[in-house]
Amino acid sequence: MKPLLEVKRLSKTYDGRQVVHDLDMTIYPGDIYGFLGPNGAGKTTTIRMILGLIQKSSGEILFAGKPLHLLADPYAQIGCLVESPGLYHNLTGRQNLVLFQKLRKAKDSARIEELLEMVDLQSAADRKVKDYSLGMKQRLAIAIALLPNPRLLILDEPTNGLDPAGISEMRTFLKKLSEQGMTILISSHLLDEIEKVATRLCIINQGRQVAEAPLDQLLHTHRDLELVSPKPEALYKFVTDWLQMRGHTALTRLVDGNVLIEGFSDDSALLNTAAIQSGHSISELRIKTSRLEDMFFTFTEGGDNHVGRLASRSV
Ligand SMILES: Nc1ncnc2c1ncn2[C@@H]1O[C@H](COP(=O)(O)OP(=O)(O)OP(=O)(O)O)[C@@H](O)[C@H]1O
């Protein structure tokens, strides 16, 4: 499958200070692409460059294989919600959609009904926007971005300011949109939220990419293995030596009387067989997939990484 959006070695420098460093992103059709990083990591700057709202300092941005600036009407291909939505609060939801459709010199009432249904605002369509909740306003703004039927939707921190119910509604909505074939790039500092919806992920920290891969793959290679044994100390020593012999860098610890291997990406059956052959008994072997939060700590360990400012729970 060919990527829909490719970002290659994208960089941005403000007044001599580089805030985005050689970023690579590959977004395939149908992805919910999570763009994750703490506050100030460079997410908005990157998104603004992708949307052509600010100039990139260097790098390439390709949409369906073509440089973005060669697209005839980029905003018909890429819908976005980047800042607080510019809605007309004294008009109803439906009137806002009609107005924005007119601005695009289009008239298609069936499309408006389709979008109201898609963002679950049919029953509130004739209420004034000033009476909408923030979540409803966000969804209306997304409906406006979807008016020209773009192939990619970019959402910068769409859950900012939403209450738990609003966050949950947004998640359901994004999944529904994705099932209907939309490709979505969503930036967030809410790890849990992204883990629940993303298919592919880019993690940045201080403008530098620390990971870019399918979510499954990232979680799989960053999993822990827990071994239960009647003689954990002896098993711990065996495991440490075995891993060292194989050049493995996974960290092994004794936790609550069990042997825990952090970040074990090797074959657990192989380790089990080796242990048994060396006379060790393993009564239970559990693979624990790391949560995104643990993974982020692993990736950014050791530096001044602003992790303290990274929200770990959506609620
Ligand atoms: N116009 C600008 N001039 C100078 N520096 C800027 C400008 N815009 C952003 N920056 C800096 O670039 C860095 C990245 O900011 P950016 O807003 O892209 O981060 P972010 O990951 O989107 O964070 P947040 O979630 O807080 O918006 C920050 O250090 C910020 O201060």
Automatic annotation (TrEMBL):
Q: Which UniProt keywords apply?
A: ATP-binding, Nucleotide-binding, Transport
The record's annotation in SMART domains points to: AAA
All copies of the ABC transporter domain together span 5-231
> What CDD domains does the record point to?
ABC_BcrA_bacitracin_resist
Q: Which GO terms describe its molecular function?
A: ATP binding
Specify the domain of life of the species encoding this protein.
Bacteria
Q: Which InterPro entries match?
A: AAA+_ATPase (IPR003593), ABC_transporter-like_ATP-bd (IPR003439), ABC_transporter-like_CS (IPR017871), P-loop_NTPase (IPR027417)
Q: Which Pfam families match?
A: ABC_tran (PF00005)
User: What protein family is recorded?
Assistant: Belongs to the ABC transporter superfamily.
Name of the featured protein: ABC transporter ATP-binding protein
Q: What is the lineage of its organism?
A: Bacteria, Bacillati, Bacillota, Bacilli, Bacillales
